[in-house]
Fold:
Amino acid sequence: MPDRTRATTEPGGSPRSGPFIVRGVVTGLLAAAVALGVGQFVAAITGPVGSPVVAVGQSVIGLTPRPVTDFVIKIFGPHDKLVLLLTIVVLLALFAAAFGIATMRRPAAGFAGLAIFAVIGLFAVATRPNSAPADVIPTLAGAAVGAYALSRLARAAGPVTGDEVAAAGGEAVADGEAAPGGKAAAGGEAAPPAGEGAPSYGRRSFMATSAIAAVGAAVGGVAGNLVSQRSTVTHSRALVRIPPPAKPAPPLAADTDLRVPGLSAFLTPNDRFYRVDTALLIPQVAPSSWRLRIHGMVSRELDITFADLLRRPLTEADITLCCVSNQVGGSYISNTRWLGVPLAGVLREAGIRAGADQLLSTSTDGYTSGTPVETVMDGRNALLAVAMDGVALPVPHGFPARMVVPGLYGYVSATKWVTDIKVTTFAAERGYWVDQGWAVRGPVRTESRIDVPNGNSPLNAGKVTVAGVAWAQHRGVAAVHVRVGTGPWQQARLAAVPGIDTWRQWAWDWQAAPGTHQLQVRATDETGYTQTPQFAPPFPSGATGWHTATVKVTA
Ligand SMILES: Nc1nc2c(c(=O)[nH]1)N[C@H]1C(S)=C(S)[C@@H](COP(=O)(O)O)O[C@H]1N2
Ligand SMILES: [Mo]
Structure:
């Protein structure tokens, strides 16, 4: 009786053969898929923070050096997180395939691989700021079921026989491999060759085991997603009734929106409002469990429920929010009508003690941000916002409550899913991005952008309306100038604005001549400052420079 086990492990023998490698790859991939599927499913029950994929992804976000994140954000923009997840899955698949192949020679290899990934997963989960002890369960369960799947698959894959390798038409039989508890070499006898093209029992049993594993992984993953979707706060958000403002926003003048085709609307619809955060998994915070704790250097700690918050008089205000990572001409800026509780009043109630200069806000997912106390208390509309554009905050924008402070970049002012505000000092604590080297204070820079023409549609010589937005939140835009090439600066007409906290539309009618032209824009704010032409990247305190659009005009 030929010793097939030996035969397969001979150096230079079948271990490097095609079927052997394919089975190894399939074994590795499926064992990993089962582990992930089970992990996702269990995480859907124990809580999404325990998902090993998400935890590892979130840790990667935290560990990635800034130039790399900048590059990824620059190239992939809002899809940066999808790219991150795909990268992790592809890397995991490559490792799983390699371990699977190794398992064909040494069964222990696969278990070692699984153990390594389980340890990485456990470490990532345990170091999440918002993880609980139970959050290790999905990884442990995934690893355990993954190990079981691996043992079954490895057994069914069996060592590939010399016959199998040599004979393309006839497959060796490895019947015993399929039996539970059977050993790899159990079906030791060489069977009569099967008919031309007919799969052997060995292949069949491997395919059957693979199919079961694949279905198991898919069911785990899909069911997990369904369960976790059911447990999101979409439903409780739909039930929230936001009271009308005690202090409504001033009505908008008719010419607030110049209605130039292609120009950003004055008020950004919620589904077009830019989104920037470090959350791989959007925090799901039920209004019934939401609490805002205000503590630190205060005379009286406050613990506010969502119902308490809604009982306070609400202020409505149009405020433009922008991200410090916005490139010149970029899209990380939007404007909406916010509704919320003035933060200054709440802080006065808590009583800020002398010496405190920073509000360190924390969201449910552990993200932190430091806002100057002085800015929040100076009379501007710094809000604990509960609604935007007439509806409760969309979940990705911070439901049920977030901060908004006009005049500051989002990273130092706009904490979403906020549940904790500590009154402290800049000397004592640093927020998330400041810790990564970004500026401690982040006042928004005076900037402007050309929205149209944008090169997307052909331009004919003659009258072309050049239009865009300019912003200098809490200072106000006083003037916008446009030029063609190095020609003279031309004054653009300005749209009306309800105050100094929003962006401002501008437009300029251009008599375009055929050819390729560079259009440039620069804004002047109400302090008299005109945008510097000096180029600066977003890091560390916001991009500067004049936005330039290159356009082609045909005769
Ligand atoms: N919890 C939390 N809040 C956050 C962030 C975050 O990563 N996590 N990012 C901030 C940054 S950098 C910006 S620019 C704004 C963006 O708010 P938006 O996504 O609603 O546009 O949210 C701020 N609030
Ligand atoms: Mo940001």
